[in-house]
Design goal:
It is a single chain. By secondary structure, this protein is of the alpha+beta class. 24% of the residues lie in helices and 19% in strands. The chain contains 4 helices and 5 strands, in the order ααβββββαα. The protein has helices at residues 2-18, 37-46, 123-131, 138-144, and strands at residues 63-70, 77-82, 88-95, 105-108, 111-118. Strands 1-2-3-5-4 form a 5-stranded antiparallel β-sheet. Strand 4 (105-108) and strand 5 (111-118) form a beta hairpin.
Length: 180
């Protein structure tokens, strides 16, 4: 009887603490509101991607590796999600003509999204991640694609400063010889 009395208070405390779990509000920047289509298009096109092919996913314990975001194929999209243990989920998108070729894929509007895992990612995790595929929210877009830099445009070359004004245009890498 005395042992049960000593165990009861910690159990009640644990139950009270756990009852508050899951009540946190999401970050307002990632509220789930869809990304502005014009903003998504500008950012995707600046990176050489078709904005209609930009999708994201979620998997418990995995976060986007920002440096992995890039172009898949001619104008598709790719990204990787890592969990800190070396496991990686690769997300790829491309046009529908590539549908039906992958084990973990989903068709979305005019494209196919498929996932591949490495480093011990289970099929169950990939299946959950496929079901979580969606267009980026406003908050996800800020993490996913950079804002285009207005200083760089397709019609103006970058001014390097190390190219000679005459000759073949190769950089001048000469080093002065001491004493000459």
């Amino acid at each position: 009887m005395i042992r049960a009395v000593r165990v009861l208070p910690p159990l009640l405390l644990a139950a009270a603490l756990l009852s508050g779990c899951g009540t946190e509000k999401a970050d307002p920047g990632d509220s789930g509101s869809p990304a502005d289509p014009a903003e998504l298009a500008a950012r995707a096109e600046a990176s050489g991607m078709n904005p209609d092919l930009v999708y994201v996913t979620g998997a418990p314990g995995f976060t986007l590796a920002r440096q992995s975001v890039g172009v898949q194929g001619a104008d598709g999209f790719s990204a990787a999600y890592t969990d800190g243990t070396g496991a990686v989920i690769h997300l790829y998108t491309d046009h529908l003509r590539y549908a039906g070729q992958h084990k973990y894929e989903v068709k979305e509007k005019d494209c196919v999204v498929w996932l591949e895992g490495e480093g011990g990612v289970s099929g169950a995790v990939l299946a959950k991640a496929v079901r979580a595929v969606h267009r980026p929210t406003a908050g996800e877009l800020d993490t996913l694609l950079p804002t285009p830099d207005p200083a760089f445009t397709d019609d103006q070359p970058v001014q390097r400063g190390d190219l000679p004004s005459n000759g073949d245009g190769a950089p001048d890498n000469s080093v002065p010889t001491p004493g000459l």
